Amino acid sequence: MSKIEVVNFEPKYRQIWDDFVEKSNNGTLFHLQSFLDYHPAGKFNFHHLMFFENQKLLAVLPGGIVDNNIFWSPVGASYGSLVTEALPFEKALQLVDTMMEYFDNAGFKEIFLIPPPIIYNKVITQNIEYAMLYRKFDFELHYISHAINLRFNGDFLSSFDKTARKTIRKIFLEGKIKIEPSDDYQTFNEILLKNKAKHNARPTHSLEDMIRLSKLLPDKVRLNMVYYENKAIAGSWLFLCNSKVVLCFYNMLLYEYEHLKPVYLIMYETVRWAIENGYEWVDIGVSQDTKAADPMTPAISLINFKERFNSHGILRSTYHYKFRD
Fold this sequence. Notes:
This protein is an alpha+beta fold. It contains 9 helices and 14 strands. It has a 10-stranded mixed β-sheet with strand order 4-5-7-14-8-13-12-11-10-9, with helices on both faces. A 4-stranded antiparallel β-sheet has the order 1-2-3-6, sandwiched between helices.
């Protein structure tokens, strides 16, 4: 079996890296160098790796060094871990062994990897994950995320539960609110900040971050805004992660307009648009109780709401390996 060579990422490889991610089996928006570019220089100690076999790129691994020689993938993104084609198991195991040998020889103490959930795979395979578990990786955490499968027969609205169907039909009948694409990130950010403040939280992205991402990747982000009497009352920022999955990164509303049920309209439009544009899944994101002591605690009311739209739970897991002291 040919030897796999590990190469540290350099800017000269940027286009090769991004082209590989786009054509890979499990790559997403979050693995692209053009996405990671939105971070200010020096914010993270990036340590991206490329794996070559016979001078052909076999895999990429975005990530960075945190604390004291601990490698995390991703850093500055939602999903990371190894990006590959749909590899046969023996090659996947060789790749994982090569990765572990590299980190061990380089003096790293621990590895944390968060691959995208299985719905992001173009070919459903978990050879890489099994290879890691076989080599005695363990799990740091599992989060429950929720996703809507868009591949079904018939009107998608009929797959929503009774409350969702009734609410959405009422919205259309009354015509009080409307939803449309927008580039008004300033207004969306105001809604985002007010919404997060209600929960004593801060958003992951600043206004400048969102504007920068919209310019860096105009074909991979989409902002929808909901209006009532020409006033923006809610919005949704979507990431078009790869050819299979649309991710709802933020669904936000002004709570004084909650009675108008704008998030129901957001969910309807997101699913409608995703189906129309050939996607297979809408990922609605993780459903954790962020105030609980146990980070894995599910947010039951949030899960119940997401399930109104025919979503089902999928795992977002963190793989962990600790080298010998």
